[in-house]
Amino acid sequence: MLKGTKQWIFDCINAQPKTFLIIKFLAIYGSLRAIYHFILVPNHSLMNGFLNWYATIVATIGHDKLGYPIESIPLERGIGLWFGEYLMLVVDATCSAGVIYILFISLLFLFRNFYWRVIPFLLTGLVGIFAINTIRIGVVTYVLKYHTVYFDFFHNYLFLYIIYLFVFYVWYKWYKVYNSMVT
Predict the structure, then answer these.
(1) Distance between CA atoms of 37 and 31, rounded to whole angstroms?
(2) What is the SS3 string spanning 126-141?
(3) CA angle, 47 as apex, 126 and 98 as ends, to 5°?
């Protein structure tokens, strides 16, 4: 019975490889998303440690390089970015780009074999997502302080499209390398 079930699964995969890839993607993405949502996000000390990297970089560049009166102060749930005496932005779990990291990792591990050549793409993608999100937080903080009218555009649209374009570009480059190794 087990042998017959295993053969049936392999026959289905060979007959419908695109369907199998979709199911595999949903399984990887759903599993990572559940871990993120139910384990990492509720763990405020762990999440604040990660968010502090973003906020510290933004505050250091803003204060030391650009001369803005900005500082980052840990809160119970997130990191506050203060301009002088005013709290301008709270960097919380929704600002972590966690869902985008999960999407990127799910796309890279979608194919059959894990080749060592995926490592440069993985590192490039993770560092790139971190850099783009850090720039996003810095620009959104600046826009919120000096050009409030444009906050929604920068926060919800511009950087979201930039980061997704970056993720799919790196994945596409990996896919091309993967195809050249398979054929």
Answers:
(1) 10
(2) HHHHHHHHHHHHHHHH
(3) 40
User: What's the rounded mean pLDDT across residues 56-73?
Assistant: 91
Q: What is the model's pTM?
A: 0.87
Model pLDDT for residues 109-164, shown as the tens digit of each residue: 887 666 677 888 999 999 999 999 999 999 999 999 899 999 999 998 999 999 99
- Of residues 115 and 99, the one with the higher pLDDT is 99
How far apart, in whole angstroms, are the C-alpha atoms of residue 29 and residue 51? Answer: 22
Torsion (CA) 125, 40, 22, 121 in degrees, nearest 10: 10
